[in-house]
Amino acid sequence: MSTNKCLMSAIEGAIKLRISKGIFDINFTKVNLLAAREGYVQASLKVESEHCNVRGHLHGGMAASLVDMLSTMALMTYDTSKPGVSVDISLSFLAAAKQGSEVIISAESLKQGKNLAFLTANITDATTGKLLITGKHTKYIA
């Protein structure tokens, strides 16, 4: 499936709007949107010191924020005015993303019901393709 340029523009705009508020979402300044189509977004991030814990690995809180934000963007490919509200989010850390590496975040909207949306996101090493982190995210969408 190819990237939808209109969706790509809408999602880029939503990310930039969040960053421009100067609040927590400023952490996503260095996230680069790579693809967007209905129900799916993909982005990259070079892991730099501000994204890391004291061991020089992608901080768990930053990883959770990436899963939250990008899975929400996957949901918003259906309607950019309805980001929903998080009900549950969980991550499994399979391997470390080291400072200086580039990661790819692929997020998908698996299912939308009347009130809930079920989303996933995977964070992989851009060079090796190794799966580093998996995330599940449930949002209230009514």
UniProtKB/TrEMBL annotation:
GO terms for biological process: lipid metabolic process. Keywords: Acetylation, Cytoplasm, Cytoskeleton, Hydrolase, Lipid metabolism, Mitochondrion, Nucleus. Homotetramer. Interacts with PCTP. Residues 56-129 form the Thioesterase domain. Catalyzes the hydrolysis of acyl-CoAs into free fatty acids and coenzyme A (CoASH), regulating their respective intracellular levels. Has acyl-CoA thioesterase activity towards medium (C12) and long-chain (C18) fatty acyl-CoA substrates. Can also hydrolyze 3-hydroxyphenylacetyl-CoA and 3,4-dihydroxyphenylacetyl-CoA (in vitro). May play a role in controlling adaptive thermogenesis. It is found in: Cytoplasm, Cytoskeleton, Spindle; Cytoplasm, Cytosol; Mitochondrion; Nucleus. It catalyses: decanoyl-CoA + H2O = decanoate + CoA + H(+); a fatty acyl-CoA + H2O = a fatty acid + CoA + H(+); dodecanoyl-CoA + H2O = dodecanoate + CoA + H(+); octanoyl-CoA + H2O = octanoate + CoA + H(+). The keyword Cytoplasm applies. GO terms for cellular component: cytosol; mitochondrion; nucleus; spindle. The keyword Lipid metabolism applies. This is Acyl-coenzyme A thioesterase 13. Belongs to the thioesterase PaaI family. Gene3D superfamilies: Hotdog Thioesterase. One of its GO terms (molecular function) is fatty acyl-CoA hydrolase activity.
